[in-house]
Amino acid sequence: MSKSVLVIFDGNALVHRAYHALPPLTAKNGEVVNAVYGFSATLLRVLNDIAPEYTAVAFDRKAPTFRHILYKEYKANRPETPADLISQFEIVRELVRAFNIPLFEMDGYEADDILGTLSLQGQAKDIQVIIVTGDADAMQLVRPGVKVLYPKAGRQFSDTVLYDEAEVKAKFGVKPARIADYKALVGDSTDNIPGVPGIGPKTAVKLINSYGSIENIYDNINQVQPEKLKQLLITHENTALQGKKLSTIITDMPLELDLESCRLSHYDRQRVVELFQQLEFSSLLGKLPPEELSGSGKQDSFNDSRLKKAPRELNYSTVACREALQKLVKRLNEAGSFAFDTETTGLNLAESPVVGLSFSIAEGEACYIPLGHVGWDQVKQLEVNEVVNALKPAMEDSGKPKIAHNAKFDITALSGLGIDVKGLSFDTMIAAYLLGEKALGLKELAFNRLGEEMTSLAQITGIGKNQINMSQVEVSLASDYACADAETTMRLANIFKSELEEKNLYRLFDEVEMPLLPVLIEMEKSGILLDTALLDGLSRRLAKRLIELEATIYDETGHRFNINSPKQMGQILFEELKLAGGKRSKSGYSTDASVLESLKGTHPVVDLIIEFRQLAKLKTTYVDALPVMVSQQTGRLHTSFNQTRTT
């Protein structure tokens, strides 16, 4: 039987790492929440990937620790914590409490010491412990039964390594138990631990692997060679021993690990959803652990019935017979306006037939017409032509106001059925864009503006190798999903219209954006005629010129190299040709367009390289690529114009 898993999150390290790694992100109230988002994403990723039975979070406190008392310069070089980061810590704590994950912190100690103490107690209880952190100091805690989940260099927690003892030894050159000794010798600029001057990583690893701990090194100091190294160690003995104390993580704090209080099944999903709504973290909603995890165990103060919305009464139905279709058409004709939506097998409409249509005439009410579902016994569906002929009068009536979300997609899809939609009056995606919404998807808007979780497409079609398309989804599931889309669109339109008017944006919306939409649809449908014969000839001429340029560049430099390799290009320009202005980074010299432009005239090869790059880009990106995109059916290039992307 496999062991139960306890995951301990290093709260401070994860929040700090997210703050510095992610671009600024603001909530509705203007508060910066990028660190909260990064922590939340990491928390959910770990809960889903590892599925631990137990969890805990460790935090620092503001009070000085015993290390500050031991060495007053400890961490003294760190800049003051930004105000917009300080405010995020309490939000993270609130999120942790909403998950009912125990939060450990204690004056006089650091989060690292809590990690050390809890991990040792977990090991003693025969639990597999995984420490999630962005601080490499925790590597010293790795031992049998304790591992560290740590991001790869320069990455967030989307790409991690689970460090065991062998991984730590491979990374640092010493065993986990000797990490503190290693830091005592080489120092740590982050914590302002000085180390022994003149001793670098290689020497430190050699000393530790030869003698073991710092104490053993000094017990055998007369054996250390060369003499210069021995004298360095003798001179800085107090510094090294103090560095060891500062670097060593405490594992015997007065804390007790109560596994039952750490059980993940206690989490209050309703409160987490509310927090995500306030913070506009709709993209994380689908990553929340399953509902059943919140159904057992103790409840906390957040689990208040006042927080839960009363369920709305919904009248969703499926139109699968002629009588129901006639009833729907009558209601569409009588309605002042209605919302509509299409379901297809994919986003590429040229290859994705319409599977069904949904309509909403009023809030709480919607219906779905299945047209192309397959693979289910006794699925009743009307003939496509009958549905099209019945709907055409209402859909093509320019005097009948219609509402859609991302209407360009739906109108284009319906044109494939022979329905020429007229009278579109409101596109909720365009309205949301004008109102400054960051997430424009219908599901995200429903969550952020209506406070409701909608079923995602992945929940009914699956993901990965088991994914199906909408035509294979059971009709009742597809009906509920599609009805919710149309009805939510109706509700959002009612909200957005009044907001556009309040912010004096409705005229822009009604007189500029909405009239532009059918123009873009027509432009996409018409496409662009390309002179492919001309482009073919141009491609051959460009290929010939590139071969000539390549040969001349090799003559100027004296040998062949990969002209498309920035690294090799940098070596040629700044090391072999000794041109001025080279800026070297870890990956090599920069040879971007601005650098080459600044070098024009300094050497003949520079102008040749600039011309080579320009022609190669022209050939591959446009001259050769565009003809391949021409539609086989129309012989034209069909573009896609996005009305809600420019910032």
Protein described:
It is built from 25 helices and 14 strands. The protein has helices at 11-21, 34-50, 66-70, 83-98, 111-124, 165-172, 179-186, 201-211, 214-219, 227-235, 237-247, 269-279, 322-334, 384-395, 407-415, 428-434, 442-450, 457-461, 475-502, 506-526, 532-557, 566-576, 593-598, 604-623, 625-628, and strands spanning 5-10, 54-58, 103-104, 128-132, 146-151, 160-163, 315-318, 338-344, 354-362, 365-370, 402-404, 424-427, 584-585, 588-589. It is globular and about 100 Å long.
- Calculate Rg over CA atoms: 32 Å
Poorly predicted sequence stretches spanning 5 or more consecutive residues = 294-309
Please give the alpha-carbon distance between the first and last residues: 55 Å
Q: What profile does the largest beta sheet have?
A: 6 strands, mixed
Annotation field: number of helices: 25
The proportion of residues in beta strands is 5-15%
